[in-house]
Amino acid sequence: MIYLDNHATTRCDPRVVDAMLPWLSEHYGNPHSNHEPGQYSKSAIDQAVSKIATLLNADHESIVMTSGATESNNLAIRGVCTHPRQKRRHIVTVTSEHPAVLDVTADLEKEGFRVTRVPVLQAGKPDAGVIDLDRFSEAVDDDTALVSVMWANNEIGAIAPMKEIAEITHRHGAFLHSDATQAVGRINVDVMAADVDLLSATAHKFYGPKGIGLLVAGNSNRRVRVRPQIIGGGQQRGLRSGTLNTAGIVALATALQLCVESLDEENVRVNQLRDHLWSRLKESIDGLVLNGPELHCGHRLPGNLNLSLSDVEGQAWMSAAPEIAFSSGSACSGADAAPSHVLTALGLSESAARRSVRFGIGRFNTIDQIDSAFEILVAAHEQLATLAG
Ligand SMILES: Cc1ncc(COP(=O)(O)O)c(C=O)c1O
C-alpha cells in the first residue's frame, strides 16, 4: 500500500508515539487530582500547552484542548454566536469550508442567524479557490458576530490571506475564527501576526494521534467570550469540561514541535515529490487539469495535488488502483456519491468534480513510492479508458 492521502490523516510519527506512551502506562494520574501522580500529569500538560502556545505564538491561557477540529469548530462557532452577551446575529463564512464549519453555521441559520457564504475565486484564475476578498468585504457588516474562514483548504490546498481577512473583520467589530486544521504543522501559523481570534487544529493532520485537538480562544489584542458546549466538572476554566487527555496533549505538542523544526526542509521535499508526480502524470495521461491554485503561487499547501481526468471518474480510478490510498472528488455515502462541494464551489461541473482526485504527499513518502504509484495509476487509467472506449 502506498499512502498518498495525507490530508485525510497522517501516520503518527514514531517519535510522537515514544513521547506519549509513558503517559498511558507509567504516569497515569488524573491531572485534576491533588496527589503527586495527578500533579505530575498536570505539570506535563502545563509544559505541553506552553510549548503549543509558543509554537503558534498564542497565549497559554487562550488554549482549550479538545477531541479534534470538529469539536473545536463547534465550540468556536456555537460558543461565540450563542453566548448570552452576544447581540449580533450574522455569520460570514466561505462556500469551500469543511462540513465541520458549514454544517454548524447551517444549524445556527435554523436557529435564526443570518449566514453569508462568500464565494472563492473561480477555476482558471492563478489563485483559484482562494476567498474572493471583494465579495468578502461586501459581506461583513456591523451585525456580524463571527467570520469563519479556513486557513487552508483540505481538498485543493488553497491558502487564505488571513491578515487581510482579519483587518476587514475587525473593522466591523466582529471576531475571526479560522479552521486551521490543514495549515498547522504544514505552513507557518502565527496567531498574533495574523490577528486571528479563534483557531482550530487537530493532531492527526500533523503526524500526531487522532482524537486530540485544540481551540485557541482569544489573543492578547482581544478577549473572546465563548459559551461552553460541554458542561461537567468545570475543567479548562469551565470552557470544556472533561478529564484532560495527558498522553494526547503531550503527543500534540511533540508532533507540532517536530513539524515546526523541519517545516522548510520538509516542504521542499514534499513539493518536489508532488511536482514529480504531477509532471509524470501530465506527460502520460491526456487532458489532465489541475484544480485549485497554481502549484507555486504561494497560495497552495505543500504536497497537495488535485486534478480532473477527462474521461474517467475518480472513484473508478481509485478502485482500479487499490494499492494506492488517495481520494476522489466525491464524498461517497453508500451508493450515492455526491460531487465535492469544494470543486463545484470553484465552478467545476458535477461531472468534472466526479472525475477529480486528490493526492496528499507527506513526511513518510519517498521518490520510489511516487514512481511506483505513477506506474500503477497510469496502468489503471489505461485499463479504464480502454474499457470505456
Ligand atoms: C479542514 C478540516 N476541518 C476539520 C476537520 C475535522 O477534524 P477532526 O477529524 O479532528 O474532527 C478536518 C478533517 O478532515 C479538516 O480537514
General description of the model:
By secondary structure, this protein is of the alpha/beta class. It has two domains: 2-6 and 263-388, Alpha-Beta Complex (Aspartate Aminotransferase, domain 1), CATH 3.90.1150.10; 14-256, 3-Layer(aba) Sandwich (Aspartate Aminotransferase, domain 2). 40% of the residues lie in helices and 15% in strands. The chain has 13 helices and 15 strands. A seven-stranded mixed β-sheet has the order 2-8-7-6-5-3-4, sandwiched between helices. A four-stranded antiparallel β-sheet has the order 9-10-15-12. Strands 1-11 form a two-stranded parallel sheet. The longest helix has 39 residues, at 246-284. The chain binds pyridoxal-5'-phosphate. Pyridoxal-5'-phosphate is lined by residues 68-70, 98, 100, 150, 154, 179, 181-182, 202, 213. Pyridoxal-5'-phosphate binds next to helix 4.
Strand order of the largest sheet: 2-8-7-6-5-3-4
Radius of gyration: 21 Å
Specify the CATH architecture of the largest domain. Answer: 3-Layer(aba) Sandwich
Principal-axis shape equals globular
Helix and strand content put the structural class at alpha/beta
Features:
seven-stranded mixed sheet, Aspartate Aminotransferase, domain 2, alpha/beta, 389 residues, 13 helices, four-stranded antiparallel sheet, Aspartate Aminotransferase, domain 1, 2 domains, 15 strands, binds pyridoxal-5'-phosphate
What is the secondary structure topology, with strand pairs?
Layout (H helix, E strand, L loop, with lengths): L1 E2 L10 H7 L1 H4 L10 H21 L6 E4 L2 H13 L8 E5 L4 H12 L3 E5 L14 H7 L4 E5 L13 H10 L3 E5 L11 H4 L3 E5 L10 E5 L28 H39 L4 E2 L13 E5 L5 H7 L3 E2 L1 E2 L1 E4 L2 E4 L1 H5 L4 H5 L1 E5 L6 H22 L1
Parallel strand pairs: 1-11, 3-4, 3-5, 5-6, 6-7
Antiparallel strand pairs: 2-8, 7-8, 9-10, 10-15, 12-15, 13-14
Helix pairs in contact: 1-9, 3-9, 4-5, 9-13
The structure holds pyridoxal-5'-phosphate.
